[in-house]
Amino acid sequence: MARLANSSLKASAFVLAALTSLMAAGDARSAPAGLLNKSVRFSITIGAQARGSDGSNIVANRTSNNTVYISSQGRLFSRAERQEGRQTGAKLIGPDGATFRIQGKQIIVVFKHTSGASRLIVDFDPDFRTCTLTALTGGESGKPVQSRGINGVMYTAIGKPSYTNPSCSVTEGNAFGG
User: What pTM did the predictor assign?
Assistant: First the structure.
């Protein structure tokens, strides 16, 4: 179940500290044996009221769909897709450019915004057969989160984000067909 997060200064400092530490190239070979040769799919919708640089006021809902494959050598391959209304975007990420990182029994994902970041945490059961997803979003130094929409408009969040429809699943093998 997703946790609602506030964008207080503590949360902002936490997200930025996490972003700084997680954006460094991590050693994916530290993947636990239970995650090797598995694919993890997880998604969530993050919503917020926002004001566009074009003067528009909207309720922005961004659905993030992610697939991570952990190879038998512990290397991460991922695909991140996002959808905002009818517009979509996708990004393939190889093992050397990942913002996806394994830390113990978690996969941690950091999405940088123009100002601020969102952090998704996938927690696994002891056998790595099931997972749950939580999320947190915060701005830099107490500033509101700013993000460019798929439509190219810069949006500034007004208020706290909401998190809905979290899902997470684990399957054996390579979800990318290799």
Answer: 0.74
